[in-house]
Amino acid sequence: MQEVIQQTIDFVKKTLENAEAGHDWFHIERVYKTAININETEKADNLVVAFAALLHDIADPKFNNGDEELGPNVAEAFLLSLSIDRDIVAHVKLIIQNMSFKNSFDKKVFTSKELQVVQDADRLDAIGAIGIARAFTYGGFKNRVLYDPEIKPDQHLTKESYKNTTAPTINHFYEKLLLLKDMMNTKSGKKIALKRHNFMLQYLDQFYKEWEGN
After folding, report:
1. Crossing angle for the helix pair 187-211 and 25-42, to the nearest 10 degrees
2. pTM for this model (two decimals)
3. What is the DSSP string of 73-114?
4. Exposure string for 106-145, b = 16+ CB within 10 A, e = fewer
5. How far is CA 128 from CA 13, 43, 132, 135, 181, in A?
6. Closest listed residue to residue 35, CA positions, set 51, 22, 23
7. pLDDT digits over 150-207, tens only?
8. DSSP string, 169-210
9. What sign for the dihedral angle of Cα 107, 174, 72, 86?
10. Contact 9, 51 (CB under 8 A)
11. Which of 39, 146, 153, 178 has its CA 20 to 30 Å from the CA of residue 82?
């Protein structure tokens, strides 16, 4: 198992060596470590969890013209090249296809304990101190303003509305980040999320004070 995991790590590092800083190898590494940590209590299939965590952003649609099938297909082709059991490959592909926040707008068609573990790990990396850093990194990458009091957060009702937003980065807290605490699947994920959620609330409180010159 360790050999194929290392091969996967090498493949992901190489593929994402020029990625945007919020979605680079270090993001993958954090999600992988967190997923393994959560799975110590969840007892899902370790190999499926590891592959899904390592490959979940191998071709993020945000950086590939919105193509939502490229990532799952790249992951599938890579795992098949390692002669991984086809049932495992199919499961990993389904996890990658279904774990993104934007897919929460769709009717849920697939779930598994493994998906729940990896999904929680990925969502945890979107909140807390690192989540804040990642939000502003991506906002800078897209040349978005930090905050505009005239532009109110939009509680997106559709996947397309969420995907096409150009709102200030602070709005992203209300449109996604602060919602994630209540979307966790696992006991471990919920416990970690609560601490990170509270940190974000403290950050926002300080942000608005400074915005007013205090």
Report:
1. 140
2. 0.92
3. HHHHHHHHHTT--HHHHHHHHHHHHH-SGGGGGSPP----HH
4. eeeeeebbbbbbbbbbbbbbbbbebbbebbbbbbeeeebe
5. 24, 25, 6, 10, 11
6. 51
7. 999 987 656 676 667 889 999 999 999 999 999 999 999 999 999 999 999 999 999 9
8. HHHHHHHTGGGGGGG--SHHHHHHHHHHHHHHHHHHHHHHHH
9. negative
10. no
11. 39
Q: What is the pLDDT of residues 78-102, one digit of tens each?
A: 999 999 999 999 999 999 999 988 6
* Burial bucket for residue 24 (CB in 10 Å: 0-12, 13-18, 19+): middle
From residue 73, give the alpha-carbon distance in Å to each of 54, 69, 192: 14, 6, 31
> Which residue in 36, 91, 25, 90 sits closest to 60, CA to CA?
25
Q: Under a CB-based contact definition with an 8 Å cutoff, are residues 102 and 162 in contact?
A: yes
Which structure tokens are listed for 7? 């091969």
Residues in the chain, overall count: 214
Backbone angles phi, psi at 49, to 5 degrees: -60, -45
How does DSSP classify residue 192?
H
Structure tokens at 40: 């110590």
Q: How far apart are CA 67 and CA 57, in angstroms?
A: 12
Give yes or no for a contact between 81 and 34, defined as CB atoms under 8 angstroms apart. no
Q: What are the tokens at 18?
A: 């020029």
Q: What DSSP designation does 183 have? A: G
Evaluate whether 57 touches 23 at the Cβ level (below 8 Å): yes
